[in-house]
């Protein structure tokens, strides 16, 4: 991740999920895991380096396994993407003090207006020990929304 990117990698990839998994009619909810592109999408999500955003402690992502990703239509042209993953953070080999790995579940929900190419809402929940560490970072939700909007804008320019 580049400097300044915080624990919102999954949010940005959720936008990719939405665009990659969207059907022309945006009807109901459906799992993106059924999409033929799922292995590539899952791999992209799993490369999110959330733990690296921690200044100290278990600041290396050792595992980020995507469990589910769903795209839903709200019926008014809006859509939402919800992705769930298991995250394990560990201390880097070069750390002065070693710590036991910590785990948590990450749930990112992104609401968007695909026609306007605009994020309308984002929410990132991280539970477990790692959740208490990552959730303590300032402005995580605002940064997630801004980063997700920048990723969606970039993708819309590619259409």
UniProtKB/TrEMBL annotation:
The keyword Signal applies. Keywords: Signal. This is DUF3617 family protein. Residues 1-27 form the signal peptide. The lineage of its organism: Bacteria, Pseudomonadati, Pseudomonadota, Alphaproteobacteria, Hyphomicrobiales.
